[in-house]
Amino acid sequence: MAAHGDGFSAAATEELMGQLEKRPICTIVFIVAMQKEAQPLIDKFGLVKDVNSPFPKEVAWVLFNGMYKDLNINIVCPGKDATLGVDSVGTVPASLVTYASIQAIQPDLIINAGTAGGFKAKGASIGDVYIVSSAAFHDRRIPVPVLDLYGVGMRKAFPTPNLIKELNLKVGRLSTGDSMDMSPHDKESITANDATVKDMEGAAVAYVADIFKVPTILMKAVTDIVDGNRPTSEEFLENLAAVTAKLYESATKVIDFISGKCLSEL
């Protein structure tokens, strides 16, 4: 997507966005925290690692790309932490790779796909795949007027009523924080956010995408029940492979639906 608002008045930007919504979607960027989560989709679409990555040589970010039908598909993962060798999960790496991907690839659409914890009190079950209606933070507590709203940072996802109806997908709100577990303070904030699922990246991706006005879809598959009776980390590891397969089954259907369509048709 070209120059997201640079040099344009508000009216001109709105007109440009209207024109883009009527143009067929060409370039999609998937932001995925863990390459293990991304691998089924990489394999499905026959994507290859970009050896001439547009990203700085100092970072561990990994880009896979290729053509599927009429779509230029890109998957970006933050890669491994240089010191510990583990996946770079969390809001900071997600924000950085989203910003860099928008600058380098100029996508028409971003899809943040990944796993999440779900709340049985909100109807979530292991393996459910949700399209997120809105995303907010639950661990940025700033008890000062107006700054409290900034801390929550609620943002609506790009509306996709036709996609949701056609594919019969579940819809729920997402709450994002930098911890896998849930403290009493987090629980209170998550409840206030009316969240069905919680993760460690989604609201950060939505924040950066909103700055540049890039339409964004958040897809989250439930690996663990946060308000259940089992340790989150144990349940996450046990279900990761099977739930990732379900996530990318749904993601493939989403891509097939998007192919040949404009943003306004989603």
TrEMBL record:
Per the record, the domain of life is Eukaryota
Q: Which Gene3D superfamilies match?
A: Nucleoside phosphorylase domain (3.40.50.1580)
Where is the Nucleoside phosphorylase domain positioned along the sequence?
27-255
Kindly state a single biological-process term from the GO annotations of this entry: L-methionine salvage from methylthioadenosine
**According to its UniProt record, what is one Pfam family this protein matches?**
PNP_UDP_1
Q: Which InterPro entries match?
A: MTAN, Nucleoside_phosphorylase_d, Nucleoside_phosphorylase_sf
Molecular function per GO: methylthioadenosine nucleosidase activity
User: In its UniProt entry, what is this protein called?
Assistant: Nucleoside phosphorylase domain-containing protein
Organism (species): Eutrema salsugineum (Saltwater cress)
